[in-house]
TrEMBL record:
Species of the source: Candidatus Daviesbacteria bacterium RIFCSPLOWO2_02_FULL_41_8
Record keyword Aminoacyl-tRNA synthetase present: yes
Catalytic activity field: tRNA(Ile) + L-isoleucine + ATP = L-isoleucyl-tRNA(Ile) + AMP + diphosphate
Protein name: Methionyl/Valyl/Leucyl/Isoleucyl-tRNA synthetase anticodon-binding domain-containing protein
Keyword Lipid biosynthesis assigned: no
InterPro entries registered for this protein in UniProt: aa-tRNA-synth_Ia, Anticodon_Ile_ABEc, Ile-tRNA-ligase_type2, M/V/L/I-tRNA-synth_anticd-bd, Rossmann-like_a/b/a_fold, tRNAsynth_Ia_anticodon-bd
């Protein structure tokens, strides 16, 4: 491995006389050592090329670190809420099987990259998995599975999969980001240190390449559907009647359910097509029932925002006071906001209930 030269922000050699670089101590204090490592190990300097130092690059790496840390905080918050412990019955959904397949694929890819001393690939694979797969897709699509109203088996399944991913990724990424992985690993296990662990082997039985391909199609359908929503002027909280997608082969019912949840539609329809890329069409006709459900979702969002502003935690129960709300969705509003009641009042507010 041969590195290039880290130049100043102006492309010249770093020099106190030029004043062309920030104080390293300030950068480390502001962003941390892990962010600096991710920035440099993912840069062309690790392939022998010279680069200009960029604080924006360190900041971008820091934002990645925050996403990784927030996945850990999300897991611990909901695990603690339900007194979750590793073990117990679990029934894997297509979403669970997919993230475990991607995790196995990550183990294979990172082992090859580490053995080849290819730090650029190490950073690329790690960031793609954490940002695109685990945080943006798996955790976001699993939020309703781990809340207080979720079923026991499904909640345990989702939490156990999150736990498995976090522990494994901590081991995989430890050479790259030693500090945050140590915090996460020790927070999840009773082990002395992540840096004393063996490199994960991966479970080839969990690798389903066809599922990975199909989930990529689901993501493309969702992306196209979101674009159609934006064009039509419908925010995501407004439910729509249906979406139709066109592909050479129909996706499984479980994957179609993910599409329905992601696009907030009541029905997913399929039409055969000879084109490999998906075509998507939304039914944008809004019935009175759909309109009221959208209003209920808006109200839930407002309550959640007020709870956050008031510093309430998941276990805190509240009472909602509102000038109006869709009565037919009152049960869903209460369930979605950890509230015990809702009553009419001149102004909208949320009050903590002392139990």
């Amino acid at each position: 491995m041969v590195t290039g030269v880290l130049l100043g922000t102006d492309g010249r050699k770093m020099s106190k006389n030029f004043g062309n670089y920030p104080d390293p101590k300030v950068i480390l204090k502001k962003y941390g050592g892990d962010a600096m490592r991710v920035y440099l190990m993912g840069a062309p300097i690790m392939k022998g090329e010279d680069i200009n130092f960029s604080e924006d690059g360190v900041a971008e790496a820091y934002r990645f670190m925050l996403v990784f840390w927030n996945t850990y905080k999300f897991f611990t918050e909901y695990a603690n809420l339900s007194d979750w412990q590793p073990g117990g019955e679990r029934k894997l959904t297509a979403l669970d099987k997919w993230i475990l397949s991607r995790l196995t694929q990550l183990v294979i890819d990172l082992r090859k990259a580490y053995e080849g001393y290819d730090t650029n690939e190490i950073v690329k694979y790690t960031k793609e998995f954490i940002l695109d797969d685990f945080s943006t897709w798996y955790i976001r699509r699993s939020r309703n599975r781990v809340g207080p109203e979720a079923s026991g088996t499904d909640r345990n399944t989702a939490l156990s999969v999150m736990y498995e991913v976090l522990v494994t990724v901590s081991k995989l990424a430890a050479p790259l980001i030693p500090f945050i992985t140590e915090e996460i690993f020790k927070g999840l296990t009773n082990e002395e240190s992540v840096h004393l662990q063996n490199f994960p082997e991966g479970n080839s039985d969990l690798l389903d390449e066809n599922l990975i391909i199909d989930m990529a199609k689901v993501k493309k359908i969702a992306e196209a559907g979101h674009a159609k929503r934006k064009e039509a002027g419908f925010k995501l909280r407004q439910p729509l009647a249906s979406v139709e997608y066109k592909l050479p082969q129909k996706l499984s019912g479980e994957l179609e359910k993910i599409i329905a949840e992601e696009l907030n539609v009541k029905k997913v329809e399929y039409e055969k097509s000879t084109q490999s890329g998906p075509e998507v069409r939304l039914n944008t006709k809004i019935t009175q029932e759909l309109k009221e459900e959208g209003q209920a979702r808006d109200l839930i969002r407002q309550v959640q925002q007020l709870r956050k502003e008031q510093g309430l935690i998941l276990s805190d129960k509240t009472e909602i006071i509102s000038p109006e709300w869709p009565k037919s969705f009152e049960k869903q509003i209460l369930a979605g906001t950890a509230s015990v009641s809702i009553k009419k009042g001149p102004e909208f507010k949320v009050v903590k209930v002392i139990q």
